[in-house]
Amino acid sequence: MAGEPTVSLPELRSLLASGRARLFDVRSREEAAAGTIPGALNIPVSELESALQMEPAAFKALYSAEKPKLEENLIFFCQIGKRGLQATQLAQRLGYKGARNYEGAYREWLQKEG
What we know:
The protein is an alpha/beta fold and 114 residues long. It is built from six helices and five strands. The chain has one domain: Rhodanese-like domain (Oxidized Rhodanese, domain 1), CATH 3.40.250. Helix content is 45%, strand content 16%. Strands 1-5-4-2-3 form a five-stranded parallel sheet. The mean pLDDT is 94.
């Protein structure tokens, strides 16, 4: 994962507390339903590319949330980090320059915050 933009747990806490980032859970719907980080929007990594390319109205209709803007800070996470990294790379390819992976993933969040 070297070279990929990541965010640590303290950074994540700070960004979320200040409202300076949007958090995306890219695990399956079943995984997210069993528990997630508060405030995260669940978009499984398998849907992410099409989701980020939707028209804003279609995105809002499907996910009940505003479509992220290209300049926003987007933090992706999964269970252990692999899908979060894939999501970060995908978002960057689509022009989301503020995309980062929470490298500790849900596993770390659950251990330290849950």
